[in-house]
């Protein structure tokens, strides 16, 4: 059924970073709209946007930030934030390029997020702690008791209420936290296997999560109701919401699969080989993707440094 879907997005252009493994790719929702990539050698690249939701052939700036693989790359209106297997985080002003370094984790930092409004950064990872920082690199609080019993894979601010955050873990649980009191206020049991990834809709009301066996749960946080359960037959490596439509897309072994949240049906599939080493050659593995600011393009990054743009049919 999925293979019979009429493609909405078609390949428009591509470029590549030579001798690079792209680990994360994000497209800024703030002006000036720009594309960022992160690589396994610990660097970040900035690509020029010509206001037509495309990108330059070469990065216009590069930032040497970490000594190891970058696990996460997020942005705010004034900064971008990275975390790495070198146990650190870096907060960077793109114009100056000067990083603020955050030290304290004792193992790989797997996920991070920033609330510029509340001047706070949150991070988590293999050491099973949740750390809250100010924007100057100072540790404000550490949650290390009763967080999760196993590795924490993802942490996000809930956009509706930035005093709350959400985490998922290999202990099969999703938890919602109050940052002011530093306590867990809700625990969701949506999965029977380790929860590897989660993503929130732009307004923060819809949660999409995936476990290690490819079971995807779509959950309404406001009504506390499960909207859909999908079986995508592989672990999701990344989940992104279309900023312009009520759609969520998932990067799987075989490609990017898009689910329409209102109609509750699959509407698009971009076959881009996914990222399963046992299925395809490592140099073709797509590791990351994102929507452009207005949802008319999807960008992908891969282990061989290739960046591709897929444009929606008009």
From TrEMBL:
GO molecular function: ribosome binding; translation regulator activity
WD repeat boundaries on the chain: 102-136, 145-187, 188-229
Pfam families: WD40
Keywords: Repeat, WD repeat
InterPro entries named in the record: RACK1-like (IPR045223), WD40/YVTN_repeat-like_dom_sf (IPR015943), WD40_PAC1 (IPR020472), WD40_repeat_CS (IPR019775), WD40_repeat_dom_sf (IPR036322), WD40_rpt (IPR001680)
The organism's place on the tree of life at top rank: Eukaryota
Family: Belongs to the WD repeat G protein beta family. Ribosomal protein RACK1 subfamily.
Listed PANTHER family: RECEPTOR FOR ACTIVATED PROTEIN KINASE C RACK1 (PTHR19868)
Name of protein: Uncharacterized protein
């Amino acid at each position: 059924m999925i293979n019979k879907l009429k493609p909405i997005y078609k390949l428009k252009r591509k470029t590549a970073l030579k001798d690079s493994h792209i680990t994360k790719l994000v497209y800024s929702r703030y002006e000036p709209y720009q594309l960022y990539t992160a690589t396994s050698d610990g660097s970040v690249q900035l690509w020029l946007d010509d206001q037509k939701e495309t990108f330059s052939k070469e990065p216009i700036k590069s930032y040497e930030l970490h000594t190891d693989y970058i696990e996460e790359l997020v942005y705010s209106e004034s900064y971008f934030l990275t975390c790495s297997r070198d146990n650190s985080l870096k907060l960077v002003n793109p114009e100056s390029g000067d990083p603020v370094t955050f030290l304290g984790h004792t193992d790989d930092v797997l996920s991070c997020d920033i609330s510029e409004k509340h001047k706070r950064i949150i991070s988590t990872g293999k050491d099973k702690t949740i750390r809250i920082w100010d924007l100057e690199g100072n540790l404000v609080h550490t949650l290390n008791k009763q967080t999760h019993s196993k590795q924490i894979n993802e942490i996000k601010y809930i956009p509706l209420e930035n005093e709350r955050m959400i985490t998922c873990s290999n202990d099969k649980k999703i938890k919602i936290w109050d940052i002011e009191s530093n306590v867990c206020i809700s625990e969701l049991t949506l999965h029977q296997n380790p929860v590897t990834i989660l993503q929130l809709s732009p307004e923060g009301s819809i949660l999409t999560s995936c476990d290690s066996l490819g079971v995807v749960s779509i959950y309404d946080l406001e009504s506390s109701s499960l909207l859909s359960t999908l079986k995508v037959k592989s672990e999701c490596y990344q989940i992104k919401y279309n900023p312009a439509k009520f759609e969520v897309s998932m990067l799987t072994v075989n490609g990017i699969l898009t689910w329409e949240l209102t109609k509750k049906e699959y509407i698009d599939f971009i076959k881009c080989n996914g990222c399963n080493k046992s299925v395809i050659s490592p140099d073709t593995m797509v590791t990351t993707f994102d929507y452009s600011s207005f949802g008319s393009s999807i960008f992908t990054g891969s282990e061989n440094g290739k960046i591709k743009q897929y444009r929606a049919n008009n």
